[in-house]
Amino acid sequence: MLMKLNQWRKERFPKGGAPDVRICRREIDLGTLPGKKIGHTYYVDIEKEKQASGDPMLDDLMQH
Question: Domain range for residue 11?
């Protein structure tokens, strides 16, 4: 399930504790934060984000 990046930041982090939107966009572009860009809008795949271990190598193995 995809959620708009701004909404995800509001729900995922305490008020004032969310990383900058530019950092989140970069992490999506790099693939370290599961999500995608559709048009000009960034989305986070909340199901994949919940399943992520924090270890990129392990997460890559688990998705195959």
Answer: 2-62
Q: Which residues pair with 38 in a beta bridge?
A: 41
Residue 7: which of 41, 34, 32 has the closest Cα?
Answer: 41
Q: In the chain, how many domains are there?
A: 1
Give 18: exposed, middle or buried? Use CB within 10 Å, 0-12, 13-18, 19+.
Answer: middle
Give mean pLDDT in consecutive 10-residue pieces for the chain, a chain of 64 residues.
Answer: 95 90 96 94 91 65 58
**Model confidence pTM above 0.85:** no
**Of residues 37, 36, 35, 33, the one with CA closest to residue 56:** 33
